[in-house]
Write a sequence for this structure.
């Protein structure tokens, strides 16, 4: 099946509708929420009411019946309006997708309707202090104790735990046949005894806070295990590929917002006789930033289509490439936007300076650009493995 490069009429209509919602809130709303230490509850609730939060989840569980293609459009357009929802990456994209594909019928009935209508949120816990991007070094362990599971370990840089009803924790269990540890996923409700959290102070302006988690003899019932205990990496990457695609959408929205502010400024700002956008030294870098964002979007669309079509292997390569390209394009667009505005680019009035830090998050998380280059050089080009 070919990968479409031109969006359907339905997708264009979705973009237009979500953009209209985002523009009703905009960057001023987002900045106010951040300044107050609050959350984007009003935008989240309205997006849920309009069916955007669960657009990728199954219809039989209250979702829109679409896929990551549609959800990435939602996140990109909200970001382009200046008010991205990071929890879209975590709750419906990662956790919702994993549960829809591998959860038990009881888990689906319990969680998917709430994730779809926005009344419930779920965080995702994989990153650890000593593991970094190496999921094979995860040390959070889960052992069987009678009919229960008992988890012990630590996680860092976990988004939105304070507003999530539960966290989907990646732990490792021992394979009885080989004695090796294999990854497994567990639903850990927020108030479970032994499940602790502490905020991490970040030089980052965002409504969603980052947390370090501790799991100290966290006891869970057997039904907390998601899917098959022996599925291992298959279930894990069912969540990681959408995460990379949605991170690309997050970066694209950010880059488009910054570029839009710069273009508006370049059209109207006059220092001599003509607007500064007349001069090629400013116009050409903005044009280059636009080209880079459009190219990154094409790769993101390819990755999303492959994933929704069930091609996990193809989607893995494309999702990594999309995340890499979108992050680089976003960083360049934000830098050029700030440079175009000069001193005004560093003022609170224009709201671009805080994006210098935010844009670099896409280079770092959920996997660094260096690890993506490792993946592509080894998996795509067949070069010797370096890690």
């Amino acid at each position: 099946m070919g990968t479409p490069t031109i969006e359907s009429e339905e997708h264009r209509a979705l973009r237009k509708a979500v953009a209209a919602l985002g523009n009703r809130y905009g960057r001023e709303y987002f900045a106010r929420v951040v300044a107050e230490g609050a959350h984007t509850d009003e935008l989240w609730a309205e997006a849920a009411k309009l069916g955007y939060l669960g657009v990728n989840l199954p219809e039989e569980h209250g979702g829109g019946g679409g896929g990551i293609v549609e959800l990435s459009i939602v996140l990109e357009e909200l970001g382009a309006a200046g008010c991205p929802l990071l929890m879209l990456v975590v709750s419906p994209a990662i956790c919702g997708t994993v549960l829809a594909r591998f959860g038990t019928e009881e888990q689906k009935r319990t969680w998917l309707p709430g994730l779809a209508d926005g009344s419930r949120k779920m965080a995702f816990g994989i990153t650890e202090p000593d593991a970094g991007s190496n999921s094979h070094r995860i040390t959070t362990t889960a052992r069987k104790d009678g009919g229960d599971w008992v988890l012990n370990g630590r996680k860092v840089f976990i988004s939105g735990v304070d507003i999530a009803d539960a966290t989907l924790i990646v732990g490792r269990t021992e394979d009885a046949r080989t004695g090796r540890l294999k990854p497994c996923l567990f639903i850990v409700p927020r108030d479970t005894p032994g499940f602790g959290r502490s905020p991490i102070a970040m030089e980052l302006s965002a409504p969603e806070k980052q947390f370090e988690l501790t799991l100290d003899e966290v006891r869970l019932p057997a039904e907390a295990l998601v899917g098959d205990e022996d599925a291992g990496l298959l279930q894990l990457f069912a969540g990681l590929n959408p995460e990379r695609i949605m991170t690309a959408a997050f970066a694209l929205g950010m880059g488009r917002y910054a570029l839009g502010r710069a273009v508006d400024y370049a059209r109207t700002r006059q220092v001599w006789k003509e607007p500064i956008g007349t001069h090629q030294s400013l116009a050409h870098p903005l044009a280059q930033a636009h080209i880079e964002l459009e190219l990154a979007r094409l790769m993101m669309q390819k990755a999303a289509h492959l994933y929704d079509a069930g091609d996990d292997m193809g989607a893995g390569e494309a999702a990594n490439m999309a995340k890499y390209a979108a992050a680089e394009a976003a960083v360049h667009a934000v830098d050029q936007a700030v440079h175009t505005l000069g001193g005004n680019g560093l003022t609170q009035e224009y709201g671009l300076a805080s994006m210098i830090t935010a844009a670099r998050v896409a280079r770092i998380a959920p996997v660094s650009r260096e690890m993506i280059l490792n993946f592509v050089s080894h998996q795509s080009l067949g070069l010797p493995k370096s890690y």
Notes: The radius of gyration is 21 Å. The longest strand covers residues 148-159. The chain has a mean pLDDT of 93. The beta strands are 122-125, 141-145, 148-159, 166-174, 181-189, 195-199, 210-221.
